[in-house]
Amino acid sequence: MSKLTEKQKRFVDCYVESGNGTQSYIDAGYKATSRAVAEANARKLLANYSVKKYMEERMKKIESEKIASQEEILSYLTSVLRGETTEEVLRGVGKGAQTVDSLEVSAKDRIKAAELLGKRYAIWTDNKNIDVQGVVTFVDDIGDEDET
Question: What is the pLDDT of residues 30-46, one digit of tens each?
């Protein structure tokens, strides 16, 4: 992959945010005599192999930052189950005023976390996966009685 210029990188960053190639081309600092020229040049940039690769990298990074991993989810559920997590709740203090209190997670939420963890680790499953290897033989004896 060839080295991208700062303007190309800015273009990709703007495009990832807005999805508008023409405006991203202008916002990145490129000069264009008209919007039609900016649009055409933006299409050329979007077709550029190096720009495409850089955009894929940026999208993967954004995606990985926004989506919780399996380990993160299991860790959170475990902290809820153990009562290590608190939640903020509004509490009225009179005359229409409210304050924010930090409370332990309710027993209902802790039970739900335990249930979800139990499902993940198949603790609550009565069905057992049994691997049986063997041979099944089918005997077709219908019609043997008629021949005698």
Answer: 999 999 999 999 999 99
Helix (H) or strand (E) holding 99: strand 97-104
In the predicted model, residues of the chain with pLDDT beneath 50 are none
Half-sphere exposure of 81 (CA within 13 A, CB side): 14
Q: Cα dihedral sign for 38, 43, 48, 52?
A: positive
The total number of residues shown for the chain amounts to: 148
Is the C-alpha dihedral spanning 41, 45, 46, 49 positive or negative? Answer: positive
Domain containing residue 36: CATH number: 1.10.10
Rounded to whole angstroms, the Cα distance separating 85 from 110 reads 10
Residues 14 and 34 in one domain: yes
Which residue range(s) make up the domain with 112?
A: 70-120
Same domain, 74 and 109: yes
Nearest partner of 91 among 82, 102, 80, 100, judged by Cα: 100
Q: Are 12 and 51 in contact (CB under 8 A)?
A: yes
In this structure, are 55 and 82 located in the same domain? no
The amino acid at residue 78 is T
